Amino acid sequence: MLHSAKQVLSTETPDSQASTVTPAPTSTKRIFAPTGGSTDPGHAAQYARGTLSVSDLSPSPTTQFHTWFQEALDAKVYQPETVTFATASLPSGKVSARMVFMKELDDRGFVIYSNWGTSRKAADVASNPYAALTFWWRELERQVRVEGPVERLSSEESQVYYDTRIRGSRIGAWASPQSKALEGREELEQRVQDVEKRFEGEEKIPVPEFWGGLRVIPEVVEFWQGRESRLHDRLRYTKKGDSEWKIERLSP
């Protein structure tokens, strides 16, 4: 004999009924569709400061980046060298990202400087020597994305940049076991004092073996120009050979 769902439920005990009912999840949105910077209440800001076509681009992505970087400087973009540096650890695949400064650009790629002994990014690139960079220049409504393998600069190359840093930053590179847990601020300050004593009276401080430059060698570079209605211009360089690049427009 078939029973209705109502009849079946009526034969269950209160305890068994409770165990079969899953309450609907509740969620309170603390932020929803923010429209900061928009002059149109309730709608996101529109991008309308420029356009980008293949004919605008240099055959080389590093040359094109240099052009855009200079335009960012001319437009008074705040610290245009600021970039998100993203890495991923293997075999877990867990991704991490942080803001750093690009300090050099050459024909081989984009160079940042950091601790490569104790930091999270050091562990990531040790297991997975690939990384990504993302620049965002709000004043120009432009974004540049870079992806590719990484390589360490030699100590001799790193020393050149290291020597341009103020003394406190050079001492700090020696003193800080980056990303390691500290008992308190006092521990870090004591380490700084110890390094100061070590190099007391010396103006020429050697670059630490664990610190220096890392170059991201571009295999993919995307130039992004904001457009209205989120129909952005996206032009991507993909490496084909030692000096050849394929340029294609991507759907926004």
UniProtKB/TrEMBL annotation:
Please report which protein family the annotation says this sequence is part of: Belongs to the pyridoxamine 5'-phosphate oxidase family.
Domain of life assignment: Eukaryota
Q: Which cofactor does it need?
A: FMN
Q: Which Pfam families match?
A: PNP_phzG_C, PNPOx_N
* Ranges of compositional bias, category Polar residues: 7-29
Quote the subunit structure annotation. Homodimer.
Pathway terms, separated by semicolons: Cofactor metabolism; pyridoxal 5'-phosphate salvage; pyridoxal 5'-phosphate from pyridoxamine 5'-phosphate: step 1/1; Cofactor metabolism; pyridoxal 5'-phosphate salvage; pyridoxal 5'-phosphate from pyridoxine 5'-phosphate: step 1/1
GO MF annotations in UniProt: FMN binding; pyridoxamine phosphate oxidase activity
Q: Which UniProt keywords apply?
A: Coiled coil, Flavoprotein, FMN, Oxidoreductase, Pyridoxine biosynthesis
Q: Write the protein's name.
A: pyridoxal 5'-phosphate synthase
Q: What class of enzyme is it?
A: oxidoreductase
The chain's coiled-coil residues are 178-205
Q: Please give the function described in this protein's UniProt entry.
A: Catalyzes the oxidation of either pyridoxine 5'-phosphate (PNP) or pyridoxamine 5'-phosphate (PMP) into pyridoxal 5'-phosphate (PLP).
Pyridoxine 5'-phosphate oxidase dimerisation C-terminal domain location, by residue? Answer: 211-252
**GO biological processes:** pyridoxine biosynthetic process
Listed under catalytic activity are: pyridoxine 5'-phosphate + O2 = pyridoxal 5'-phosphate + H2O2; pyridoxamine 5'-phosphate + O2 + H2O = pyridoxal 5'-phosphate + H2O2 + NH4(+)
**Pyridoxamine 5'-phosphate oxidase N-terminal domain location:** 70-197
Identify the stretch(es) annotated as Disordered: 1-44
Q: InterPro entries this protein is in?
A: Pyridox_Oxase, Pyridox_Oxase_CS, Pyridox_Oxase_N, Pyridoxamine_oxidase_dimer_C, Split_barrel_FMN-bd
EC number(s) per UniProt?
1.4.3.5
